[in-house]
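Bug #77: duplicate submission created two jobs. Keeping one. Sequence:
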Amino acid sequence: VQLQASGGGSVQAGGSLRLSCTASARTFSNLVMGWFRQAPGKEREFVASLLWSARRTSYADSVKGRFTISRDIRGNTLYLQMNSLKPEDTAIYYCAAKFLGRDEYNYWGRGTLVTVSS
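Kept job's structure:
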């Protein structure tokens, strides 16, 4: 599985950004894709995930109601729509993937920087 994320940038608090992650894989069956982020001086944390075949989603409490994860099957693209951004959302965001049954995500894309200013 190869992943390529894009869409980061700088925005003021309260603004919106949409991240994209284009995926290439031999199969998308049982593929779980997710977004993680790592803020300066902090550990990487889970943001949201989606089961590709069933659109089942999961979110970190810190982003529920503000972020939406979705996918475009035809374009093999994963999205993260981020609304009502806060300065504490500033981080490098990573797209990741794993197949069902694995505990850890084992496919990672390069990060994209999101900066939210107050």
